Amino acid sequence: MKAVVDFYGPTVFVEMGKFPSIFDHKAPNSPESMVIGGQPHLPENAQKVDEYNPITYISTERNLPPFLIMHANSDPVVPFNQSVLLYQALRTNNHEVVFYNVQGGGRGYRFFIPAVTQKVGAFFKKHL
Could you tell me which residue ranges the BD-FAE-like domain spans (predicted)? Predict the structure, then answer.
């Protein structure tokens, strides 16, 4: 793998319910609960939550490709802080990362404005 582009990806499931969202992230039918087969905030699911958290796999010892993280501050599904946490983990462990806050981008087709697609194209051109 030569490069990673992350569009509004979830990271720390147990933190998602602390921020505004159209989902109740602690509910048994939340997307996170469905992925891990149980509610993320319950202690018996802690290991599964860690396994699905990409931050678990970030360290200074790992050779990771450059990351481009893009997240809209108005995302109604995945709280913006999820990308902040990923960015901080990558920076803290000295990995190359660029983070763009897409102002008012929302989610889905509203997110993919020309400024976003141009930045993604430039990132891939540089790293691939």
Answer: 1-90
